[in-house]
Structure prediction request, 496 residues.
Amino acid sequence: MGIPAVTVKKNLIGGSPALQSTQGILAVIASASTGSALPPTMLTNQTLATSTFGYGMLPECAVYDINVSGLPVVALAVNPSVAGSYYQSTFVKNISGTSTSVVTTGATNPYLHYEVQINIVTGGTIGTAGITYTWSVDGGNVVSPVTALGTSSTLSIPNTGVSFALAAGTLTAGDNWTIYTERPLLNNADISTAVATLGNTKLPWEGVLIDCQYGTGTVSLIDTWLAGREANGQFNFAIINTRFLLEPTPTAEAPSVYAASITAQSNQDSSNRLCLCADGGLLTSLITGYTTKFPTSLALAGQTMAVTPNIGTDPAYVGLGPVEGFQISANGNPNDWDEFLYQSLDSARLTTLRTFATGGPTGTFITDANVLISTGSNVYWLQLLRVLNKACSIAWQILNTQLSRGVATVYNATTGAVNIKETAAQTIENLVNPALQSGLSGQVTAVQFLLNRDDNLTTPKAPINAQVAVVPLVYLKNIIVTASLVRTISAPATGA
Prediction:
């Protein structure tokens, strides 16, 4: 008779097939100091990110997302057409009259957005050991230890791509210079090439962060690519960013001027698959330890992936706490775009960062995870796009297993049509609906798949239509409280 045992047999007839999930995995397309010849690469930790891609926006974004989400990242390095640059108009040099060396920006390109300061501590002759200096990439908030120049005629800041050429002559203690830099950015041609490459990978990813130079045609290019993927059952979203608000120095830009400048283009754009973010905030790099400005798109991407598997959770939900690491205030005063103060870009469908008034939550938060929707769309926020994409993906995967299935039909004598039989339709619905309800449990109010019973299937390969209906959660965006002084407060009713 044998010993007592439990036997489990696989039922290979009927039931829902195993579903593949890309949920929570971010793809990043950006610049890096190395690795631009590599295909899309899965990264799981900081060591792998830096050993593969060195420094720059790609490893920075990858490491940040891995840290906040605990999930891997698909990384694609691009050598952008818009190279990292120095804002020469901001190059301010305070070289004493006794110094004879001419200081210019070096031949290397900066990796990120920096506010560089160099101060000569000990003077001397270029090419002769003895000169020492300090440097900062955040406008002097954090200053390096005193560093020896040695016999070099190039002064470089480690791991930044920033360098300065020093002509023959001397520098004097107290000499200093400052300059702003900008990171490399993809133009539309770079984006087109990069998304084609990403589209060919079999590595899983749900959303893509593209560090690009936003302008005319950028949104339509990305939206067209995403729409093409949907035709093949790949339901994804993208996140991009506008240019930064010009800092108070070197050139002040009023918030109203900035808003008018970027909405001049964004008002002409729409996509039900994409979030356009504005400006950014200060963030301390997990790779270099330097504090510099990063785009809001990174904050949104990290906050979005961090809530996985709760894809119906709003990245702007204040109860999640502030966006990790991002600061848009300095010394208690606004430093970058703050939607709480300026209140104009959120209503223009852009995703922004915000703070709260004194006494409210502390830190930096997402205002709303806005999708750059077209007129009439109700996919207002990224969490709605995520649950809709998930529902579509589940239905697509299961229905693929039903292709070429033979089904019973009924003949309609009145119309002459041949329709699917009710029991056959229910059989297919009973495959899809449990998977939808399981996959979106707790993330939506309700979800249903319904196969059309009225389609005429007389002609070979005649299509049969179906619907996936999702009732999303409702998100509390406004709470109105009336406060008053009263004589007494009734005790609340209690029940069994």
Observations:
- Residues 382-400 form the longest helix (19 residues).
- The CA atoms of residues 347 and 370 lie 9 Å apart.
- Residues 4-16 have pLDDT under 50 and may be disordered.
- The radius of gyration is 28 Å.
